[in-house]
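=== RUN LOG ===
request id: a7f3
mode: sequence -> structure
chains: 1
length: 99
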Amino acid sequence: MEGYGFLLFLVLAIAIVLALSGIGLKKILPPEKAVQTIAMSFASLLLASIAVVIISLFIGGWEGMGYGILGICALIGTVVGSFMYAGLSYFIDRRKSKK
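=== RESULT ===
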C-alpha cells in the first residue's frame, strides 16, 4: 500500500501538466493550430500509454506488471488531463465571452 502514493502522484502530475500545457498552447498558437496540436498530443499520449500496457503483457513477470501499472497510470492521467483541459478551456472561453 506504500507505492500507491507514488502512482496517485504520477496520475495527478500527468493530468496537471497536460491541462496546463494545453491552456498554454492555446494562448501561444493561433486558435486553429492550437486545437490540432493539443488533440494530436492527447492522442499520441493516449496511444503511447495503451502501447505500454500491451507491451507489458508480453514482458511478463514482475517487470511486466510494473510496466503495466505505469501504463495504466499514464492512461488515467491522460484521460483526466483531457477532461481538466476541456473544463478549464470552457470556463476561460465563457469568461472571455462575457466581457
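=== NOTES ===
The radius of gyration is 16 Å.
Residues 61-98 form the longest helix (38 residues).
=== END ===
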